[in-house]
Specification:
With about 200 residues, this protein is an alpha/beta fold. The protein contains six helices and eleven strands. About 30% of the residues lie in helices and about 30% in strands.
Length: about 200
């Protein structure tokens, strides 16, 4: 078990599924938009991917830079930057794969959600893959309480910007993408739910 943890770290199980299905081949350019302390990056750093990350928290970026210096010392520290998701400084069409794990649901309102999503999407090249996990109301419509717009209070006491199936389907079309998998939602003991949204950029 320790060998698996050393190799993959605390990787999201649904991202691991994408690896098993060979959708993230070695050597591609991976940008983690909202990387935190790098829990989803251990395997990519170990396995020869071109890895990049942004996060608005300077401490998290310092942690990721240290992780990268240990696992992939050839990568320059500037691959990992203190930035808001809405203001990604990497060029448009930069990445083959963009990861967005537990990030977008922290949007304050529609305007910020749209800006965060657009920043994430613009960084992806045509033909690239967006892997996104975010909070939703799917399957828990009666348990979440609206606050303002799409901001809701969840039974676990947290407040999140929640998407639903109709919105994600509409956004996929508007962005110029295609779903690679059906939307998949995990409900955690009627306290919160997370949806996996995997999209190919086709336009």
């Amino acid at each position: 078990m320790s060998d698996l943890h050393d190799q993959f770290g605390e990787i999201d199980i649904y991202l691991f599924d994408q690896l098993l299905r060979r959708r993230l081949p070695p050597g591609v350019r991976v940008l983690d938009a909202g990387c935190g302390s790098g829990r989803n990056l251990v395997y990519f750093l170990r396995s020869g991917y071109q890895v990049f990350g942004i996060d608005p928290d300077p401490i998290s970026i310092q942690v990721v830079q240290r992780l990268a210096s240990r696992l992939a010392p050839h990568l320059p520290p500037d691959n990992f930057r203190v930035e808001a998701i809405e203001q990604i400084s990497f060029p448009e069409g930069f990445a083959d794969v963009v990861l967005s794990s537990a990030v977008l649901h922290f949007a304050r309102d529609d305007a910020q959600f749209t800006a965060m999503l657009r920043g994430t999407w613009n960084a992806l090249r045509r033909g690239g893959l967006l892997f996104c996990r975010l909070a939703s109301s799917i399957g828990m419509e009666q348990q979440v309480k609206p606050i303002a717009g799409r901001r809701h209070r969840l039974p676990d006491g947290t407040e999140r910007y929640l998407v639903d199936e109709a919105l994600l389907t509409s956004l996929t079309r508007e962005l110029g993408g295609e779903l690679l998998d059906p939307l998949k939602t995990t409900i955690v003991q009627n306290q919160r739910c997370m949806t996996t949204w995997v999209v190919r950029k086709v336009a």
